[in-house]
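Translate structure to sequence.
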């Protein structure tokens, strides 16, 4: 799979487009989603050029994978929804490929929470 260096998250990573940053580590960046689907909606992305989970899980270095998974935990904590922040829970979603409804071709996890999220799937 070829990575499109012009995708919107690549531009955010290069600082060409602003974002409301929540968290940053060596290999991950988290920022608010521009069109929130829940009271709290944060995107967590690896800094490396990975199209989706297939690409990341196969091709990322172990240190990038570890850092990214830890970033997911840090973000839910910073957002106040994790057990470590006495929060009430949250949901991570990663859309991959056409059936997954992925729009931006740079791996990202949506962290949604801050309210009860109901059932997991609604196929619209
Ligand atoms: P996908 O459908 O690919 O899983 O999710 C892409 C997400 O990126 C959407 O939730 C959309 O609102 C968000 N998004 C698209 N463009 C921008 C942008 O320029 N800035 C931010 N912060 N989020 C964006």
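Result:
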């Amino acid at each position: 799979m070829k990575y499109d260096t012009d995708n919107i998250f690549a531009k955010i990573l290069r600082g060409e487009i602003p974002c409301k940053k929540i968290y940053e580590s060596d290999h991950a960046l988290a920022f608010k989603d521009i069109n929130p689907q829940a009271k709290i909606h944060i995107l967590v992305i690896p800094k490396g050029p990975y199209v989706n989970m297939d690409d990341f899980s196969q091709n990322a270095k172990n240190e990038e994978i570890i850092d990214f998974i830890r970033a997911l935990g840090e973000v839910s904590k910073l957002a106040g929804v994790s057990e470590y922040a006495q929060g009430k829970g949250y949901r991570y979603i990663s859309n991959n490929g056409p059936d997954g409804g992925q729009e931006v071709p740079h791996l990202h996890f949506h962290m949604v929470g801050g309210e009860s999220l109901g059932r997991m799937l609604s196929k619209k």
